[in-house]
């Protein structure tokens, strides 16, 4: 399913909207995890010297 990344039949703004939605979901998930104190994969990568 590699052709779904650059499908010429799909409008550009639709792809951008889906990408923004995906980024926003990631951002919200990271914020929720930060509130609960559970480390996400991204924060594990950046803050290794926690303990």
Query: Can you write the helix and strand succession as a string?
Result: HH
**What is the radius of gyration?**
16 Å
Spans where pLDDT lies below 50 across 5 or more residues: none
How much of the sequence is in beta strands? under 5%
Number of extended strands: 0
First CA to last CA: what distance? 41 Å
Plain-language structure description:
By secondary structure, this protein is mainly α. Helix content is 61%, strand content 0%. It contains two helices and no strands. The mean pLDDT is 69.
Can you lay out the helices and strands and say which pair or pack?
Layout: H1 12-36, H2 41-46
List its traits.
51 residues; mainly alpha; 2 helices; 0% strand; elongated
Summed up, what is this model?
The chain is mainly α and 51 residues long. The chain has helices spanning 12-36, 41-46.
């Amino acid at each position: 399913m590699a052709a779904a990344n650059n499908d010429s039949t799909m409008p550009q703004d639709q792809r951008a909207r889906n990408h923004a939605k995906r980024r926003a979901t990631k951002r919200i998930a990271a914020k929720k995890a930060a509130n609960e104190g559970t480390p996400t994969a991204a924060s594990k990568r950046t803050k290794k010297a926690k303990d």
